[in-house]
Each structure stands twice: as structure tokens, then as C-alpha cells.
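User: Sequence in, structure out. Go.
Assistant: Echoing your sequence, followed by the C-alpha cells.
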Amino acid sequence: MIRRSSAVWNGSGKEGKGTLTSTSGVLSNTPYSFAARFESEDGKAGTNPEELIAAAHAGCFTMALSFQLSGAGFVPEELKTEAAVRVDPSEGGFSITAITLKLEAKVPGISEEQFQELANAAKAGCPVSKALSSVAITLEAKLG
């Protein structure tokens, strides 16, 4: 299986602008720029690579947890994950320095201990977590 997306950029790094497009069409000439990446916290100037990594990580982890729970005999009512990707200045530019996964879950009949164990297994086993293993990934899992 291969998944594809493409980027087009015009202009210099700081003043230029680009677009991102995915095969699925979810991204279709979606704008991105220096401002969208480093200056626009509200996201209205377009997307950025770190936001897309956060979305990918939240989605992958949440689906992996659903499989972990189902395999253990539990059907989640709701799994809600927010992924926060931290970007800091570093030598030669910027680096992703940390990712925090904040999970709120409604899973009938599961103990806190088993929930935490399965959530941590999902964090370790999801393909995006594996790909990002050079970055510190923290999980804050709350069972409600």
C-alpha cells in the first residue's frame, strides 16, 4: 500500500506560498505558507506540515486503540484524541521536539488499569507513532 500527496511551492521560503493536494481529495490545492506554519495560530492562513502530522497521529492512534479495545472484548462508545505537535527553533532551522496525545474515552466495562495498558499499547504500535519514534511522545489518557 502506498499513499500519496503532493506539494507545489512558489517563491522564497518566507514570502512564498504553496499548495498541498492528496489523492483522496481531502486536500485539494490547500494553501500553506511560512505564515500558516509559524505565525498564524488560528489556522486561517492555511495548513502546515505539523498540523497534518498531528491529524495523522491522532487518527492513527485512535484507530489503533479501537482495535486494541475490540481485541480485548470492549466496544468504545467514543474515543476522542487531540494531538499537539511542538515545533521549536533548533540548529539550522526548526525541529519537532515533542508530541502530546490527549485522549478522552468512553469505554463501558473496562478497568482504569486495563484501559491505560491498551492505550499505551496503541500508542507504541500505531504506524505513525513508530515513524515518529525519534520524538518524545506523551500520552494523557482519561477514561470517562
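User: And one key feature?
Assistant: The chain has four helices and six strands.
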